Amino acid sequence: MQRLKIDHLDSLLLHRPDALMESDQVAEAFDLLYKQGKVRDFGVSNQNPMMMELLKKDVKQPLAVNQLQLSAAFTPGFESAFHVNMEDSQAAMRDGSIFEYCKLHDVVIQAWSVLQFGYFKGNFVGNEKFQALNQVLDRLAIKYGVTSSTIAISWILRYPAKMQAVVGTTNPKHLREVSRAANFSLTRKEWYEIYLAAGNNLP
């Protein structure tokens, strides 16, 4: 914090699960940081509901945030929900219904890799591998007077939970452009159109 010239952190997140984590030790560290005024809120990253419940057994402070990978081209959390009680591979529950859990407990979902497909495989906006998706994004960008990237982020924000998008850019112009995603809301039809254009299907 000295290097950043700040006296506190707004949020401190535990990054990635740790099989050897001792929740009582985490609670002790959180208590110390909170009492010293060095951290205001705590959260996690890439953790499922049972991992969060394990932490909550000892941690006194609310887990206010969970950072989860989500983009129009990376939607495994939604696929398992859509394919409940079906035999296809998309019905496999990989995250313990973490999106629904966060909604239920008012946990902010901070989506990361919001313009990426796969696990750091690249940007899908303007990518010829995603022609159908980009056609929809481009058309809606014209309708709303924004960029295609802004539409892709608006798609994330349209999910009815406490949603935030983590945008990794050092370009002020790009940041201003994508921030406009908070100024409008896609229709239900448009949200599902983007979901399907990304190569997903609905039962």
Automatic annotation (TrEMBL):
GO CC annotation terms, alphabetical: cytosol
InterPro entries to which the protein is assigned, alphabetical: AKR_Detox_Biosynth, NAD(P)_OxRdtase_dom_sf, NADP_OxRdtase_dom
Pfam families: Aldo_ket_red
SUPFAM superfamilies for this protein: NAD(P)-linked oxidoreductase (SSF51430)
One GO MF term attached to the UniProt entry: oxidoreductase activity
Enzyme Commission numbers on file: 1.-.-.-
Keywords in alphabetical order: Oxidoreductase
Residues annotated as domain NADP-dependent oxidoreductase: 2-194
This protein's name: Aldo/keto reductase family oxidoreductase
Origin species: Streptococcus pneumoniae
